[in-house]
Write a structure and sequence with these properties.
84 residues, 0% helix
Length: 84
Amino acid sequence: VVTSNAHFSMGAELDCLDIKDGALHFVLDQKFPCPARYGIKLPTGLHPAALPAGTAYFNGLLEIYVSGLGQYDILVPLAEDLKL
């Protein structure tokens, strides 16, 4: 996570940020009753294969938007960049 407009810490609010089986797994326990945005820099050579609801991708940054208080478990399928 390289950018956010909310407070978070690994192991407290952010329970999981992992790439496994071709997908980014983001698990968050949002403890604040307000919308938040998390910007994630993907490893070189990877990009989202699809964008689930509440996500966006531009300029190499995957953004995940949460609406407020609650548990979020988001999977973003990834693909390798084309090599020219």
